[in-house]
Amino acid sequence: MVDDFSAPLGQNAPRRRCFRLPFTAPQAIATVSGLFLLTFLGFAIFGRDPMGGEPIVTATYDPAKLPGATQSAIPPAAPITAAAPNGQKTVTIIDGSSGQRREMVVGAEGSTDTESDTPVLQTGINQRLLENSRYGLVPVSADGLKPWRVYAASTDLQRARAATMPTISLVIGGLGVGSAKTNDAVLRLPGAVTLAFTPYGSDPGKLIARARAQKHEVLLQVPMEPYDYPDNDPGPQTLLATASAEQNVDRLMWHMSRFRGYVGLANFMGSRFVVSDAAMQPIVQEAARRGLAWFDDGSVPRSLAGQLAGAQGAPSTTADLVIDQVPTSAEIDKNLAKLENLARERGAAVGMASALPVSIERIGAWAQRLENRGILLVPLTTTLMKSKSS
After folding, report:
1. Number of other CB atoms surrounding residue 254 within 10 Å
2. Torsion of CA 107, 287, 294, 138, to 10 degrees
3. CA gap 22, 202 in Å, rounded
């Protein structure tokens, strides 16, 4: 066999004939790809299933039931309102996709349902009592309504009963940071116990909504400068005795924008701040202008809060006792008994406590038998209204 290696020099071996394609390999690949693409486009344009067999799910939803929607949220549809008796409105909501109509009767904020004797929309937020600030929505008085009365938890019937009996109000403070501790107070304590929240929780709105759903009144605790500041630091945006009135009011706006539905403000620490007339006056004045009550936790004997609130016409009260200053069962029980004696002597008494497990346990057990001893446990606003009428 003659090939290129065995052939004599200068002579070429005969070459085999082979079939050659009229185009190169890359050209062939491009041609096949083009044919595949044309085929796919044909199915996409003229086929009955343009998604090529992908499953399609069609879902319907109620905008009012979306995650995060609250009782006060208005579904994204055009509402049509009509007048109804007793200050109520009939709202017709039209679903924009289906055209379905749904009617809802909404009561006036703060009004009372005569059948159940409970406030209408207890967990709702009155949008008229909110205004924009640089930090978000903050409470304000409007149309003769004030947040401290609109968000009061008791009914007229309960307040009338409280006017004829000795009463005790209890405020549990320091809530909002630590959801386990907060949930324990919300769920285990009677609804008549008022809960005070600091502004620093990761999701304060959810905790406040849960508390108000359990019929607890809510206070906002405003961090204020103590004597040993900054070694003892209440937290970011603390109101300082050395700051200007404008700076402190601006910081107050930040705190007030953190959540909604509170009846008033309370000091969080503040041993230096609450004894300064120049520091306290603009803050109490702002609270009064916005229709908020003021609660002094009683930790600073020389506090000016009550005196300044009275001068501004704002409802206020001061705790008579911090019941768990010594956090033992024996001391807490002893101070609760002292509150009972004060209530019988004066007609009303107010106590302050922290959300310690021992405090929650002792208050819960004590509250179960309190009415049998002729004393009512009432929300803080009931005590405020009782003192205004006396």
Report:
1. 16
2. 50
3. 72
Tokens encoding 194: 């008022």
Are 131 and 140 spatial neighbours (Cβ–Cβ below 8 Å)? yes
What is the residue type of 111?
A: S
What local confidence, expressed as pLDDT, does residue 28 receive?
55
Q: What is the pLDDT of residues 188-202, one digit of tens each?
A: 999 999 999 999 988
According to DSSP, residue 375 is labeled -
- Contact 248/283 with Cβ under 8 angstroms? yes
Mean pLDDT calculated for residue range 262-273: 98
Q: Whose structure tokens read 């070694």? A: 231
Q: Three-state SS across the chain?
A: CCCCCCCCCCCCCCCCCCCCCCCCHHHHHHHHHHHHHHHHHHHHHHCCCCCCCCCCCCCCCCHHHCCCCCCCCCCCCCEEEEECCCCCEEEEEECCCCCCEEEEEECCCCCEECCCCEECCCCCCCHHHEEEECCEEEECCECCECHHHHCCCCCHHHHHHHCCCCEEEEEEEEECCCHHHHHHHHHHCCCCCEEEECCCCCCHHHHHHHHHHCCCCEEEEEEECCCCCCCCCCCCCCECCCCCHHHHHHHHHHHHCCCCCCCEEEEEECCCCCCCHHHHHHHHHHHHHCCCEEEECCCCCCCCHHHHHHHHCCCEEECCEECCCCCCHHHHHHHHHHHHHHHHHHCEEEEEEECCHHHHHHHHHHHHHHHHHCCEECCHHHHHHHHHHC
d(CA 340, CA 325): 18
The answer to whether 306 touches 316, Cβ cutoff 8 Å, is yes
> How far apart (Å, rounded) are the C-alpha atoms in residues 304 and 267?
11
Q: How many residues does the chain have?
A: 390
Q: Given pLDDT bands bounded at 50, 70 and 90, which one contains residue 38?
A: low
Res. 264 pLDDT band, cuts 50 70 90: very high
Of 128 and 28, more confident: 128
Opening angle at CA 65, ends 62 and 68, nearest 5: 140
